[in-house]
Amino acid sequence: MSTMATRKTPLLFSLFALVVGGAIGYGIGVKAEQSTSAPNLQACQQHLQSQTERLDQRAEQYQALVTSNEQQSQQLAQTTKDLTAITEQMEKQKADFAEQLALLDQKKQQLSVNQKKLEVTKKKLDTEVVKLKTTTTKQQVVIDKSQQYFKRQAEMQANVKETQASVSELNQAAKGFKKACDEFKSGNSWNWVSKKDCDNYDQQMKLLKEKQAVLVTQQQALAAINVEIGKK
After folding, report:
1. Using one digit for the tens of pLDDT, what is the confidence trace for 56-114?
2. C-alpha distances in angstroms, 65 versus 2, 72, 73, 76, 77?
3. What's the rounded Cα separation, in Å, for the pair 99 and 163?
4. Residue 146: which residues within 8 A CB-CB, separation 6 or more?
5. To 10 degrees, the CA torsion angle through 96, 101, 104, 108?
6. Structure pTM?
7. What does the alpha-carbon distance between residue 12 and residue 58 come to, in Å, rounded to a whole number?
8. H-assigned helices in the chain
9. 212: CB partners within 8 A, 6+ apart
10. Which residues have C-beta within 8 Å of that of residue 215, sequence separation ≥ 6?
């Protein structure tokens, strides 16, 4: 039995009870009237007509009530259906939101891990940068010193070469003066020689020895700086 049929049943019983009650009352009234006076047919008909009209009015009221109840039931069913749909939609949105929240929390945790890794990497890089700067500074000092050593080496090599040339010239000149001096000392030279040639020879030999001493000093200094460069 449907809900609408269930709602109609009490109304039918009420209407039936009303009619039966009216009829019983009317019968009792007629019987009482018969006991006191003769029956009045016209009055009975009028009373019956009045009861019929009242019954029709009640039937119309009942029908209106039934129609109103049906409309309300339909509205309630539609409202329930809409509410169910809204509830399902809200549950879906709630589940989606929970999923997005869990994903966001996961990304947040991953971001925190990445941030920590980045900080560790940054510290390592900072340490490496400091080491690199220190090494670069030391290497620059070495390079600067090396450049100074190579510059000094080049200067010394030039000085040694120049002194060697002077020694060679002085040695050659000394040989010429020595030959003239030897002829002078022998006393039988046919060249025009004199004691001055011997003096020049002595002076030349003195300059040669001085230059040779300078050359030895320069060569020792050059050897020392060559050793230092070899250590770099």
Report:
1. 888 888 888 888 888 888 888 888 888 888 888 888 888 887 888 888 888 888 888 88
2. 17, 10, 12, 16, 18
3. 92
4. 229, 232
5. -170
6. 0.40
7. 11
8. 3-36, 41-186, 195-231
9. 167
10. 160, 163, 164, 167
Contact status, residue 223 vs residue 160, Cβ threshold 8 Å: no
Number of other CB atoms surrounding residue 179 within 10 Å: 15
Query: Which residues lie below 8 Å from residue 170, measured CB to CB, with a gap of 6+?
Result: 204, 207, 208, 211
- What is the DSSP track for 72-130? HHHHHHHHHHHHHHHHHHHHHHHHHHHHHHHHHHHHHHHHHHHHHHHHHHHHHHHHHHH
Q: How far is CA 119 from CA 113, 126, 149, 153, in A?
A: 10, 10, 44, 49
Q: What is the pLDDT of residues 34-60, one digit of tens each?
A: 444 445 888 888 888 888 888 888 888
Closest CA to 12 of 70, 54, 63: 63
How far lies 178's CA from each of 186, 194, 202, 212, in Å?
12, 12, 9, 18
Other Cβ atoms within 10 Å of 188 Cβ, number: 5
Residue 55 to residue 52: CA distance in whole angstroms: 5
